[in-house]
From TrEMBL:
SUPFAM superfamilies: Cytochrome P450. InterPro entries: Cyt_P450, Cyt_P450_CS, Cyt_P450_E_grp-I, Cyt_P450_sf, Cytochrome_P450_monoxygenase. This is Cytochrome P450. Gene3D superfamilies: Cytochrome P450. Its cofactor is heme.
Length: 583
């Protein structure tokens, strides 16, 4: 009797369990292609993704989706990267099982720019930053609160400040890098060395000058007592035997850096660990307990609060003083706003602190990664490197004649279309932010297929360096040519070809897809600063050095996807350019 009851219950349970099983399988959106076997797995695309990642060192999530687009022969696909059963676990609110990926610029442009009311900020970038800067505007939907916070940044992002006040500081930082590299070059005697750390520190010191002012770092140098890198005796003595094994990389001792820089590096590194986490809040609870991170956050908070206090004091002393950094702009903005609204200014509010902190984490890594990729490409494409150097020499005749580097004023006041073109092409290939996404805030459609509210729409344009036999790109764009006809030749997008950006001798912004800084109202507000830093770095280095080829084993294109997408290897082998012939 009892056995029978159990059997009945067991039999009754089978359909129930089966129904639960079915409900936990991915629920594809009708009409949008997907990988059929992924839809039959509780883990969705995860097993196939893991296999893909393990097959080749340059494979990434992006190459997975682009190869899937190729297989499915569609510019719009859906993937299932988040198992549905996760949503049964407590405390996981951000699981969004439906993800549509766009591989076509015309469709992406439509979604991100023209239909930005239907598709707004998604939680994915924010998830990396939620614990660090919860009040930063990056998390907000595009509404009045966002607008008000963005306005706080306006002065600091304006041309007057960037080109007038900040540019000389950025130029000075780039010159300092050249000095350090000349020293290193003398010691290395044309052996390669890794340029990564120097380039990230260059970008970090640029963004620190933007945030806290050009004077900020001078104070820090005194604190640390070094400032510049002094290659040690040891590296000169033992490290570099003359002549023999000239492919062996030189290792320079790491420069001693100020605490605030170490704090930025630590926070950004942790941010990278949080990228793509299925359970960002849970992960955050784990990482925030680490002593190193606690230290870094304290250093960051103390610095930000101290610099706000200094800016308030300066403004109290003189209301007419021109703001010399982002913090001073923001303090002035808050004072004016408070006056208008008849309230007391709140200089140390969580919003102020999180907006300022936001400048100091991750943004330097995007810029630094761009420079790292850039010097790799230019090393491996010497004809483009030479053409760019030529364009610079033609663009800065006075500097050439006087045998000195171009000044930042010259850089600022001279249009060199080929420099713009190379910078743009580097960004197109490097795509340091990996891609952008949005979330549908209403039930809507894409290319005629229903897309319900909550769906994540990601734009991961095919990575030109790694994939896309040209026919694919062509096929993809033909499919969606009904939306918007592109003016460029898609079959050519797989090549690194700066000339594409030049039309009738002028730089042409519409020559190819541009997504490195995002698209639409939520695109990156820091891009003017980023371009300035990237160009100053390119000009200073190429003006002074020839980038010689590095050995193959140091010239890999593997990526590390952390807070940004960066090269695993970034070696340079420098030959200083002697300009005595110009006499
Ligand atoms: C090469 C350098 C950089 C790259 C490639 C980059 C890329 C991006 C991308 C892709 C986004 C998301 C855009 C979207 O969703 O449409 C973004 C957002 C943002 N970036 Fe950048 N960025 C860079 C440098 C900077 C710098 C230097 C700053 C500031 C100092 C900055 C501040 C921001 C902010 C505040 C947002 C959020 C905007 C919002 O949510 O409204 N970025 N960036
Ligand atoms: C804007 O959106 C955020 C959520 O992203 C919300 O917290 C805030 O209250 C909204 N502000 C307005 C004015 O609707
Ligand atoms: C840079 O150019 C802008 C105009 O485009 C000018 O207002 C600014 O003063 C220049 N800055 C420098 C440092 O030459
Ligand atoms: C391109 O599309 C055509 C049909 O539209 C198809 O026959 C061909 O196989 C596709 N090529 C590739 C490489 O996907």
């Amino acid at each position: 009797m009892e056995a029978l009851t159990l059997l009945t219950i067991a039999l009754g349970a089978v359909p129930t369990l089966y129904l639960i099983y079915l409900s936990l399988l991915p629920h594809p959106l009708p009409g949008i292609p997907y990988r059929p076997s992924s839809a039959r797995s509780l883990l969705g695309d995860i097993p196939a993704l893991l296999t893909h990642l393990s097959t080749h060192p340059t494979n990434t999530f992006t190459t997975y989706t682009t190869s899937l687009m190729r297989q499915l022969d569609s510019p719009v696909i859906q993937i299932f990267p988040r198992p549905r059963f996760l949503s049964l676990l407590p405390g996981i609110s951000s699981v969004k099982p439906k993800v549509v990926v766009l591989g076509d610029y015309a469709t992406a442009y439509d979604v991100f720019v023209r239909r930005s009311r239907e598709f707004d900020r998604s939680p994915s970038i924010g998830n990396m930053l939620l614990g660090f800067i919860p009040r930063n505007h990056i998390h907000l939907r595009t509404n009045g609160t966002w607008k008000a916070q963005r306005r706080l940044l306006l002065g600091a992002m304006g041309k007057g400040f960037l080109f007038g006040v900040l540019a000389p500081v950025i130029g000075e930082r780039a010159e300092r890098l050249v000095d350090v590299w000349k020293e290193k070059g003398k010691l290395a005697k044309e052996r390669p060395w890794s340029a990564q750390r120097d380039l990230y520190l260059l970008a970090l010191s640029g963004v620190a000058a933007f945030t806290f002012g050009g004077q900020f770092e001078e104070g820090l140098e005194k604190e640390v007592g070094v400032g510049r890198e002094e290659p040690s005796e040891r590296s000169e003595g033992e490290g570099m035997p003359d002549g023999e094994d000239s492919d062996q990389p030189v290792e320079f001792p790491e420069q001693d850096i100020p605490d605030i820089f170490r704090a930025s590096l630590e926070i950004t590194r942790t941010m990278g660990e949080l990228r793509g986490s299925l359970m960002p809040r849970v992960k955050w609870e784990i990482v925030r307990r680490r002593e190193r991170l606690k230290w870094a956050r304290t250093v960051m908070a103390d610095t930000v609060n101290r610099e706000i206090a200094k800016a308030v004091e300066k403004l109290d002393r003189s209301r007419e003083a021109t703001p010399e950094c982002a913090v001073e702009h923001m303090v002035a903005h808050e004072r004016n706003l408070a006056m208008k609204e008849g309230r007391r200014p709140d200089y140390f509010s969580p919003v102020m602190v999180d907006e300022i902190t936001g400048f100091m984490i991750a943004t330097y890594e995007t810029t630094g990664s761009t420079l790292c990729w850039g010097f790799k490409y230019l090393t491996d494409l010497p004809s483009i490197q030479n053409k760019l150097r030529h364009a610079l020499e033609k663009g800065y005749p006075a500097a050439l004649k006087e045998r000195r580097s171009p000044t930042i004023e010259e850089m600022n006041n001279t249009d060199i279309p080929y420099l713009d073109a190379v910078s743009e092409e580097i960004l197109r290939f490097a795509n340091p932010a990996t891609g952008v996404d949005r979330q549908a805030v209403v039930d809507t459609e894409i290319l005629g297929h229903a897309v319900p509210k909550g769906t994540i729409v990601a734009c991961l344009l095919p990575e030109p360096a790694l994939i896309s036999p040209p026919e694919i790109a062509k096929n993809l764009s033909q499919r969606s040519s009904s939306i918007n006809s592109n003016s460029w030749d898609d079959s050519d997008l797989a090549h690194f070809r700066p000339e594409r950006w030049i039309l009738h001798g002028e730089f042409d912004l519409d020559a190819a897809p541009r997504v490195a800084f995002g698209l639409g109202p939520r695109g990156c507000p820091g891009k003017r600063l980023a371009y300035m830093e990237i160009k100053a770095g390119l000009v200073s280095v190429l003006w002074n050095f020839e980038l010689l080829p590095c050995p193959a084993e140091l010239s890999g294109y593997e990526k590390l996807v952390l807070a940004t997408q960066k090269p695993k290897q970034c070696y340079v082998r420098l030959r200083e350019i002697s300009r005595s012939w110009t006499l």
